[in-house]
Structures are given as C-alpha cells and as structure tokens.
Amino acid sequence: QVQLVESGGGLVQPGGSLKLSCAASGFTFRLNAMRWYRQAPGKEREQVAFIGVSGYTQYADSVKGRFTISRDNAKSTVYLEMNSLKPEDTAVYYCYNGAGSWGQGTQVTVSS
Q1: Per-residue confidence at 3, pLDDT binned at 50, 70, 90?
Q2: How far apart are CA 33 and CA 37, in angstroms?
Q3: What is the layout of strands, in order, in the sheet containing 46-51?
Q4: 7 contacts 105 by C-beta, under 8 angstroms
Q5: Which of 56, 72, 96, 102 could staple 35 via S-S, CB 3.0–4.6 A?
C-alpha cells in the first residue's frame, strides 16, 4: 500500500523559511521521480518542484531561486526547503510519486 505523508507546514511571516518533508512507503522510492505540488484556495493544483531518480531538479518560475527540492533515498523521503516566502506561496502542499499516489497535504500560510 503506497503512502506519502507530508509534514513541516505551518504559519510563517513573509521572508521566512520552512522545510517540508514527505515520507514515502509501499513502493521503490529510489526508482521514482518525485514532485511537490501546491494548491491555493480557488486555484488549480500546480507543480512547483521535480526531482528525478538521478537528482536532476526542475522548478516553477515562481519559486526558482527560493525553493530547493532534495531527496534521501535511504530514508525514502523527499524534502522541499522554502526560503524568502511570500504571501502568494500560501497553499496546501502535496508530494506526488508520479504514479497516481498523493499525500494528504500540509498547509503553508505566509502572513504577517
């Protein structure tokens, strides 16, 4: 049974930082590219970061230079480090294994 469990969200002031984690189980993590998505109220879900099996990364233009995706295959965990956060980064953040399985999401709120 595939499980993806996100954690690390919360309330942060503009300019602050958060690091999200997604613990995976039930599939061969090291053989899967992983993605972080986010969905803000009233908006479609959008991909913000991708990491391939080899560690290749891609980012949405809106987060490039501020967010960093990484993975630890030994822990079957993917991370999203978010710096210089802006109010428009407020959303529920999800990890996705590219094979139809999503986590439950973690709320990130950027507000003063």
Answers
A1: very high
A2: 13
A3: 10-12, 106-110, 91-96, 34-39, 46-51, 57-59
A4: no
A5: 96
The DSSP letter of residue 102 is: B
| CA nearest neighbour of 12 among 76, 72, 82 | 82
User: What does the alpha-carbon distance between residue 40 and residue 53 come to, in Å, rounded to a whole number?
Assistant: 28
pLDDT tens digit sequence for 23-60:
999 999 999 999 999 999 999 999 999 999 999 999 99
- What is the CB neighbour count within 10 angstroms for residue 20? 23
Tokens of 87: 């109010």
Q: What's the chain's length in residues?
A: 112
pLDDT value, residue 100 = 87
Question: Is the dihedral angle over the CA atoms 13, 15, 17, 18 positive or is it negative?
Answer: positive
d(CA 97, CA 111): 30
Name 36's bridge partners: 49, 95
